[in-house]
Amino acid sequence: MPREFAASISGFEGDSYKVELLDASGLVHYVASHYADDGWRVVSDEKLLVSRADWDTFWLALQKDKIDGWKAFYIDEGTKDGIHWGVKIHWDSLKLDSSGSNAFPDTFSDFETAVACLVGKKFTSIRPNQALEPTTTAVTPRADARVAPAVVVAHL
User: CATH topology for 4-119?
Assistant: First the structure.
């Protein structure tokens, strides 16, 4: 189990998440907020006990994602508003303090998934150029082609 763990994601608008280890028992504090026209609202504020087995699984995911190679800071200078995130972990020999503004390490999506699995709650944010759902590789044929209609149809 880590000595220290904190992770957060917050967007200019939309959803915001924070997870922080509170003590050596595995107790974490999870907060989810949502931004709407009337400002930020906390939609979930919970203390969750994470089992040793779930921490071990999380540790394996961190090693697989090679987060020990993450830089201290990632930034996209071209985007003024957007998504800000931070991760602090002290676990065995790993001491990581990494954060970013509209830029992410290559394995950040995997990290988000690992955190969500750890706490059993949502922990993700839509990033620029990230699809809301998987997109199909199906191509619509030209209008005069003699083929059956595409089986895959996008829904909007």
Answer: Mago nashi protein (3.30.1560)
